[in-house]
Amino acid sequence: MLANGLKVVTVELPHLHSASVVMYARVGSRYESARDNGLSHFLEHMLFRGTERLPDAYRLNHAIEALGGTLYAETGRDYSLYQISLHPETLDGGIALFGEIFRAPAFSDLEVERRIILEEMLEDLDEDGRLINVDDIARRAVWPEHPLGYRITGPHENVSRFRGADVRRHFERCYGARNMVLCVSGAVEHAQVIGGVERAMGGIAEGRALEVTAPNGAQDAPRFAFVTHPGSQTSIQILFRGLCEKDADYPSLLALGRVIDDGMSTRLHRRLCDELGLAYYVAGSLEPFVDTGLYEIDGAAGPDNVASLVREALALVARLREEPPLDEELAKARRRYRWDLEHSFDDPDAMAGWWGGTELFFGPSTLEEKLARLERVTPDSVREVARKIFRPERLTVACVGQLSSRRATEVRRIVEGFR
What we know:
419 residues; alpha+beta; Cytochrome Bc1 Complex, Chain A, domain 1; 5-stranded mixed beta sheet; 10 strands; 42% helix
């Protein structure tokens, strides 16, 4: 840790021929008020606009690209990241440039960047300005009164209103050293990296670590959200409030997720696609946060198949409350989980996320610890976590597409009838 409180994580992977420099920060929509919603994403864009020494987007990006890298960033609900992937021989220069971005941003050309952001936001709207992004619609339905339900980009009226003073205020609040973690992974050595990091980032203001406010669990029945939108398919999300990664039952939930969907031979694709032909694409995934989480089934289908897809997906997860997975299913899940973790050692970005991104909230687990936790999972513990998660009061379903009133009513009845 630097004197200003910035945590610095290095992941030494000497077998690789690349390096990644990644800054993680507790900044995103869950740290915003309704009036500031979208400001984290706006600020992310503004950090691309240059530094005091390189005071426009062209000069900053030219300097980074001259080192063989490309500046990449993304804003999430509970954290944001900034990344440059480099050849090890240009690492020192890349760290120095990275430090300028967070120590002395220029925040130039705000009106130009505003136009770019508003263009980006059009992807989530129809021609009448209605929100049609199923991710945002679903999460707003899950957390209607909590910032986790906010759109990451924020509403149009906020983005149109933000000024330079708002950007600087949010930067000073969120980009203090104690609210960030820097990770350098790949063909690097900690002793060689830390000096350059101290020179580049020791001058970042200390700030403070932002706290999260947990959403309450107040939901007493299934929820259904539908937005009509022309098209040949309807997008579908089936969400259950899940568990945070540190929950004692999380390893069982992780195994449950892989039993449901970990390839085309597992239950979800086999039943909905191969046997019933209800969709070309359907997938299950976990989205953990520091204090809560989601289990999600995501897919798309023609209007005639939407009700059947929702019904069969809910029947599939309900069945796991009564029947534990087969021993061979669990064994396959463990093998594939181990192989995926081991593959991560060939990817400096994945290693940065494992060790650096996790460090934002709690200490990362080693490979051995992760494998040991999954090894302790049993078929009965998977069934118990299914009983805990797949409950009516944890269920939200969102659809965006061309459903008639009759079809939408049918889907709503299936959702509200889930027991």
